[in-house]
């Protein structure tokens, strides 16, 4: 997960370290926050985030999406709960 520096300052989230391993295996230095709780409808995930400069767009990332069991609806361009889970709830 990634948030921008402006959001980090507004939310007053503290840093815990300065390193991130990127998807391609490269190591880059970014301020990394402690736990952030992400909530979507009736599901939540907790994860750390690295902080990008300025007004960079927030990136949710695969790990919190997997934890919340949400999918990307390509036509509507939004996150939706996993329909298999919805079918199982009576």
Please describe the topology of this protein.
Layout: E1 2-4, H1 5-11, E2 15-17, E3 20-21, E4 27-28, E5 31-33, E6 36-40, E7 43-47, E8 50-52, H2 62-68, E9 70-73, E10 78-81, H3 83-88
Parallel strand pairs: 1-8
Antiparallel strand pairs: 2-5, 3-4, 5-8, 6-7, 9-10
Structure commentary:
This protein is α+β, with helices and mostly antiparallel strands and 90 residues long. The chain has one domain (2-88). The chain has helices spanning 5-11, 62-68, 83-88; strands spanning 2-4, 15-17, 20-21, 27-28, 31-33, 36-40, 43-47, 50-52, 70-73, 78-81. The longest helix has 7 residues, at 5-11. The relative contact order is 0.22.
Short description:
The protein is α+β, with helices and mostly antiparallel strands and 90 residues long. 22% of the residues lie in helices and 38% in strands. The protein is built from three helices and ten strands.
């Amino acid at each position: 997960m990634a948030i921008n520096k402006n959001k980090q300052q507004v939310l007053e989230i503290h840093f815990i370290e300065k390193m991130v391993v990127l998807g391609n295996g490269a190591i880059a230095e970014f301020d990394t926050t402690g736990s952030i709780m992400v909530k979507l409808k009736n599901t939540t995930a907790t994860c750390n985030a690295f902080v990008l400069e300025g007004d960079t767009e927030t990136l949710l990332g695969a790990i919190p999406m997997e934890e919340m069991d949400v999918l990307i609806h390509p036509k509507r361009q939004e996150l939706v709960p996993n329909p298999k889970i919805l079918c199982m709830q009576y």
